[in-house]
Design a protein that fits this description.
The chain has 190 residues and is mainly α. The chain is built from eleven helices and no strands.
Length: 190
């Protein structure tokens, strides 16, 4: 059995939905792999998994956002600084602060719907005392929208996506690694 077929067969299990949840929590705190990477295999393996996967990604993102916000609010001097120094830089944090001051809600929208590091803005929002319910509400709406659109597209084009993944598994894996690497490089250079 090819590795891609094996992974797709494992992605069709219920436990994989919990993996999506856990990985999305981690992505919202420190991980640099976009949630769509975790969401894709179970949906293209079984389109009936689209709604549970989208919900798992949404709840994982919200819980991760709450944790990151709380780190910024209460643990910035210890955990927050450690996360920023190990996964970004203080210059990036200062840039995030200035962007947050100038653009506030737009920055939450931008980090919720794009690969721009959501975790850095969540820590910044907590550190700056941005209203928690507003931050979490906006994050929940925009992140849910992002995951729902991705889930719908994978559900809608499941057969085509499955064929593409099986045919180009290694190329897609390499592309995902390169894109994640470029995102990290971009984050450190901006």
């Amino acid at each position: 059995m090819k590795l891609s077929e094996y992974l797709l067969s494992r992605a069709d299990t219920r436990t994989y939905v919990w993996l999506v949840f856990l990985m999305t929590v981690c992505e919202s705190i420190f991980l640099f792999i976009p949630p769509e990477v975790f969401m894709t295999p179970p949906i293209i393996a079984n389109k009936k998994r689209a709604v549970p996967v989208v919900l798992a990604a949404t709840f994982g993102s919200i819980i991760g956002g709450i944790i990151s916000y709380c780190i910024g609010m209460w643990l910035f001097d210890s955990v927050g600084i450690w996360l920023i120094e190990n996964f970004a830089s203080m210059e990036k944090f200062e840039l995030a602060q200035s962007l947050f001051i100038k653009h506030g809600v737009f920055i939450i929208f931008l980090t919720a719907v794009t690969p721009v590091p959501y975790k850095l803005m969540a820590i910044t929002a907590g550190f700056m005392g941005f209203p928690a319910f507003l931050f979490l509400g906006l994050s929940a709406v925009f992140r849910t929208g992002r995951f729902a659109i991705m889930g719908y597209l994978l559900w809608r084009f499941q057969e085509r996506a499955n064929t593409i993944v099986k045919k180009f598994f290694w190329q897609l894996t390499a592309a995902a690694i390169v894109i994640a690497g470029l995102g990290i490089i971009l984050m450190f250079t901006i």
